[in-house]
Specification:
Strand content: 5-15%
Mean pLDDT: 90
Structural class: mainly alpha
Low-confidence stretches: none
Strand order of the largest sheet: 1-2
Shape: globular
Largest sheet: 2 strands, parallel
Helix content: 40-55%
Length: about 120
DNA sequence: CCATTGACCGGCT
DNA sequence: TAGCCGGCCAATG
């Protein structure tokens, strides 16, 4: 991979973070960067997505921009695919936009909802 | 040090 | 609501 601007460790953290986004929810670039330990590194996420190997099937379609819109060009094939795959798991997409208030991934909240046992009884 | 790259972000017309 | 603009970061040559 000669045309890579990011190191393996960085790419790995970004990809892993994206893999953590649960089905039916979306995250924006800045959020993924932040969770990956790269504050304000939204553009690094763009790059990471661009070079992600085909065999590694990460849920790239769950990543949209901070305005709640699909980031790929509307006339590209990927745009349609992203919308379809999101709808397939229950995310409502209208004119390329998603209501972030309803579908934004909130890691902390999900922890509480899906893994109630993790810890509010231990300190 | 400078330029380059990326499916961005936030503030401001 | 829609653009424009400057800023943003990691890594490379």
């Amino acid at each position: 991979m000669a045309n890579r601007k990011l190191g393996d460790a960085t790419l790995e953290r970004i990809w892993a973070t994206i893999e953590d986004i649960p089905p039916g929810r979306v995250a924006n670039y800045g959020q993924v960067a932040e969770l990956a330990g790269l504050p304000r590194g939204a553009r690094l996420v763009c790059y990471a997505l661009r070079v992600v190997p085909e065999e590694r099937r990460i849920p790239w379609f769950r990543v949209i921009n901070a305005q709640g819109r699909i980031a790929i060009a509307k006339d590209s094939p990927g745009y349609k695919e992203q919308a379809e795959r999101l709808r397939a798991e229950g995310v409502v997409v209208n004119g390329g936009r998603v209501d972030m208030r309803k579908f934004r991934w909130e890691p902390d909240l999900d922890e509480l909802l899906w893994k109630p046992s993790v810890s509010w009884d231990q300190s």
